[in-house]
Amino acid sequence: MAPGDGYDLCPGSAAAQGTSAGLTCGTGPNPAPDPMVRAEVSRGSAVRGGRPGGGGGTRRRQQGALRDSPLPPPPPFPAPRQLTTEPRSRGTSRKMAAPLDMEPSALSLELLPTDPLLLILSFLDYRDLMSCCYLSRRLNQLSSHDPLWKRHCKKYWLISEEEKSQRNQSWKAIFISTYSDLGRYIKYYATLKKAWDDLEKYLGQRCPRMIGSLKESVREEDLDAVEAQIGCKLPDDYRCSFRIHNGQKLVVPGLMGSMALSNHYRSEDLLDIDTAAGGFQQRLGLKQCLPLTFCIHTGLSQYMALESVEGRNKYEIFYQCPDQMARNPSAIDMFITGTSYLEWFTSYVNKVVTGGYPIIRDQIFRYVHDKECVATTEDITVSVSTSFLPELSSVHPPHYFFTYRIRIEMSKDALPEKACQLDSRYWKITNAKGDVEEVQGPGVVGEFPIISPGKVYEYTSCTTFSTTSGYMEGHYTFHCLYYKDKFFNVTIPRFHMVCPTFKVSIARMEINHNEYAVDEDEDSTDTDEYEDHRRVWDIPAPGGRCPRHT
């Protein structure tokens, strides 16, 4: 309930008082007037056959009782209808005016019985339900009926029956007390709380060590202090998430996913509010950007823009990517990962809890698997998942780094004589321009795995493109262990790799193109020049050569 709604939701107010049968709000010691008396007063006091003004005493008693109530007085009663007589025309028959009681009266909501009224109130949102407390005494009593607030407690605050019994409060009291603390976030709370609950439940079963790194929630005062410290307002969805969990400790593995190659490792922690505030950026290129994640191995962070400056949208989330071809250090390109904190966090959690990101060695690995990217040859199935590595990529020059994880599995129902060994691989690699490269070599990542019924073999490799997307396909050549002279090919399904949406730094637009010295030629070939190019581009070089296309 926003300020200016005209009512108070504090637990101590009259609106929060009541019994288990239903909370009464501002009724005072006087019982609610009889609805029939109210209807009689509303029809006016000048009733044909009655004494003029005969209803005035009832009306005055009714208004006096309402004045004693802390609720705002109801609208004034309508003035009594006045009967008028007109002179009869000569020759007309004498007609008696119809009695006023015979005229159809306007339908009044309060004339309905209790059960239909409660049914109507059950369809109202919490704002409208609270507003009904200020329409009349009867609606005040009915809208405080406790079961009406159960739905709102579950919808907005995810309060369970068990939690209610532990708190030993009515549903309405729980709603009001929770609103007084978290009402600012009512638009986001249920979505974020469910995401956190789902994530904790999922990780508790698969990698409980990560759950222990989560921090408790922060207070409103802590978030306000951070805003004062950095001089920028934090978005409400971000604040709401930190009212549930204050990020995590700087440990490995990180909550926001990992990635590993033979010579490269990344694991991103979700920063707590104080650490994030300490990394708030004011330098050119990252002005007014707040870090959300951090990898202690690579120094990689995802940032959230708190203002619409330097070509960024407000609350956009991105990986920074320095322009390696510009002489201006403020020229920083961006790989976009989210348009808001809510979308960024909940979409990540959804991929985790639905199995979109695999759990490997008690860590969340950010490999994306296309369910259609599977090929079966006889009893052997090959499936592929991929991932983009922003820390090893650049927009200028165009160099997009991908890793892929391949799973080779023989059916457990296969005959024992189907056991075989991988001899070689063949790759056909196509970039977005249609340029094709073919690679053939022995084994995979220096190994020649043996596949037998029920056995699984997995390995990871990588590739690069000078275009924002590309795809690979090919086959493995196996020989049978029981029939040494029998060779056969196993299809590797086509799998696509696409880099995230990116934005070019506005600083680049202000620089003369003559300042760029590096040629933007295709670099997706499998040659030893790969590492030399990487050092020229000043992209963080791995400790050893990445085994591409293996």
TrEMBL record:
<protein>
    <submittedName>
        <fullName>Uncharacterized protein</fullName>
    </submittedName>
</protein>
<keyword id="KW-0833">Ubl conjugation pathway</keyword>
<dbReference type="Pfam" id="PF04379">
    <property type="entry name" value="DUF525"/>
</dbReference>
<dbReference type="Pfam" id="PF12937">
    <property type="entry name" value="F-box-like"/>
</dbReference>
<dbReference type="InterPro" id="IPR052121">
    <property type="entry name" value="F-box_SCF_Substrate_Recog"/>
</dbReference>
<dbReference type="GO" id="GO:0005737">
    <property type="term" value="C:cytoplasm"/>
</dbReference>
<dbReference type="InterPro" id="IPR001810">
    <property type="entry name" value="F-box_dom"/>
</dbReference>
<dbReference type="InterPro" id="IPR036047">
    <property type="entry name" value="F-box-like_dom_sf"/>
</dbReference>
<dbReference type="Pfam" id="PF09346">
    <property type="entry name" value="SMI1_KNR4"/>
</dbReference>
<dbReference type="InterPro" id="IPR036767">
    <property type="entry name" value="ApaG_sf"/>
</dbReference>
<dbReference type="InterPro" id="IPR007474">
    <property type="entry name" value="ApaG_domain"/>
</dbReference>
<comment type="pathway">
    <text>Protein modification; protein ubiquitination.</text>
</comment>
<feature type="region of interest" description="Disordered">
    <location>
        <begin position="1"/>
        <end position="97"/>
    </location>
</feature>
<feature type="compositionally biased region" description="Pro residues">
    <location>
        <begin position="70"/>
        <end position="79"/>
    </location>
</feature>
<dbReference type="InterPro" id="IPR018958">
    <property type="entry name" value="Knr4/Smi1-like_dom"/>
</dbReference>
<dbReference type="InterPro" id="IPR037883">
    <property type="entry name" value="Knr4/Smi1-like_sf"/>
</dbReference>
